[in-house]
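(Deposited chain)
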Amino acid sequence: MTIFSAEVSWQRGNSGFADGRYSRAHNWTFDGGAVVPASASPHNVPLPCAVEENVDPEEAYVAALSSCHMLFYLWLASKKRLVVDSYIDAAIGVMEKVDGRMIISRVELRPRVVYAGGMPDRAAEVRMHREAHELCFLANSVKTIIEVRFD
């Protein structure tokens, strides 16, 4: 078993609270020392209570799924002796009401992979993405539909 941790910290400061007009800005601190400024999404909490430039949990969720998929894809490519020069994914998450609850119902991964030298044919690349999806710890942990798109 492996355990992962993050510290999430928030301070009220000088703002009110009971009126709902408090800052949603907070920090995520990870075991390696990285500190990420976070906030509620301005889609859910109006400015200035939300901080637009901070990462919100919904964005982090999409990024984490994309990152997990990418890391497994790169590992699979390296095992096949394929050299990847770059991997860029413009991933999106769709939040909607399902069964009366707001959920991120779907995440679309849109990877663009550039290879050095030999590159796999389209069918082999699709198979590698399917395998990366099957291996991804996070994809295996959620009920969100995760699609890999090649537009």
Q: What stands out?
A: The chain has two helices and eight strands.
